[in-house]
Amino acid sequence: MIRSMVFAVVLTLVALPVLAADPPAQAARGKAIFFDASKKTQCATCHQLGKEGTPVGPDLTQIARVAPKAFEISMLSTRTVYAKEVETKVKQKFAAMIAAENDKEVTLYNLNELPPEKMVVPRDSIYAIRDNGTWKHPPESTGYTKEQIADVIAFIRFVASGDTKGVDPAVLK
Ligand code: HEC
Q1: Which domains does the chain have, with CATH numbers?
Q2: Ligand 1 mean position to 15 CA, how many Å?
């Protein structure tokens, strides 16, 4: 028992540097796109990967497991699943991602700001929280090529599971 635990710890120690190692070429290109600080809508503005970025949107390591085409569709989709519309009692409306909530307050990211603004809103100042009908995911309009999208998916897969196989852009066409 103890032996196998020691073995597991050693395995983890050996496996971690592999994940932290330099990504292969395609994933490295994807990393540059994901963290491209020259763009306001770089993925890291709203997604966290590893310990970097801001967790406004969903964790992408989960969805990286699906087929690349499905990943692309969910990224380019103009229909939202998680985003909400918040209306306050003073009749302000904005799109938001809810980060946490309790009886007294709602912690959210205001998607009408770029970068999205983290706010703690008292629950009694909120009139309604509805499904979002207006906010659209930004890369939809920023025109990434199939090659760039494949690079980004390759990078997320590399971080999520150490996958070094890469993603052939042809599967997105
Ligand atoms: C301005 C913020 C913002 C930026 C920038 C952004 N995203 Fe998102 N992303 C979101 C939000 C919010 C959602 C959840 C939308 C919803 O309600 O379905 C999301 C959802 C997604 C999804 C679907 C996830 C799922 O589990 O359904 C993918 C894939 C994705 N983003 C990829 C990317 C990639 C790749 C980039 C960079 C090229 C990027 N996003 C840039 C905010 C952003």
Answers
A1: 2-76+146-172 (1.10.760.10), 84-131 (2.30.30)
A2: 29
